Amino acid sequence: EATGACIYLEFLFLFFIGLKLEFKRLTKLHAYIIIWSMKKSSEIRTGRHCVFLLHVHLVFVTKYRKDIFKKEHLEYLQEVFLKVCKDFEAELKEFNGENDYVHLLIEYPPKACVSKLVNSLKGVSSRMLKQKFPELKKYYLGNALWSPSYFAGSCGGVPLEVVKKYIENQKTPAESPT
């Protein structure tokens, strides 16, 4: 049976992601059901078997850090990235860049593999930018616009310390039943 402290931690953990919670105890099943109003948290998405809110911060750098982009190039890149994200059922939440790199903040579903998303974003954007702006072709080194590397960082949700504390306070069984 869960203690009041455990319920509080679960509530505290889920409170940080902005959910209004209601706990109900089912004595026959010995489990807790957490019910929340999805209307209160429109950011959270649902799948067939999951509820999720996943974000990744991506940074792409031009090959050899060449200063290539002007404002119109970045505007076009944003359009391309929006279309690619849509194909992955993801959403481009924020985009910006400078002469030699771009930052993207993307919300994506659990079924999307970040490395495949990155490959599509970089490949399609490179191809489409070359078609739209042929004068940039001279900057494509070895037929590549982007450096082969990239930065990807997960972001959002609860601070790590809160998650660690929540996991730390789980009830570990004393011994296995005999």
Structure notes:
By secondary structure, the protein is α+β, with helices and mostly antiparallel strands. The chain has four helices and eight strands, in the order H-E-E-E-E-E-H-E-E-H-E-H. It has helices at 4-15, 71-87, 114-132, 160-168; strands spanning 21-26, 31-36, 45-46, 51-52, 54-62, 91-97, 101-108, 146-155. The strands form three sheets. A four-stranded antiparallel beta sheet has the order 6-7-5-8, with helices on one face. Strand 1 (21-26) and strand 2 (31-36) form a beta hairpin. It is elongated and about 70 Å long.
What brief labels describe this structure?
two-stranded antiparallel ribbon, 178 residues, 4 helices, disordered N terminus, alpha+beta, 28% strand
Beta-strand portion reads 25-35%
Order of helices and strands: HEEEEEHEEHEH
Summed up, the helix count is 4
- In total, the number of strands is 8
Which radius of gyration do the C-alpha atoms yield? Answer: 22 Å
Mean pLDDT: 78
The secondary-structure class comes to alpha+beta
Largest sheet: 4 strands, antiparallel
Summarize the amount of helix as a percent range.
25-40%
- Placed side by side, the strands forming the largest sheet appear as 6-7-5-8
Which consecutive residue ranges, at least 5 long each, have pLDDT under 50?
1-41
CA distance, first residue to last residue = 20 Å
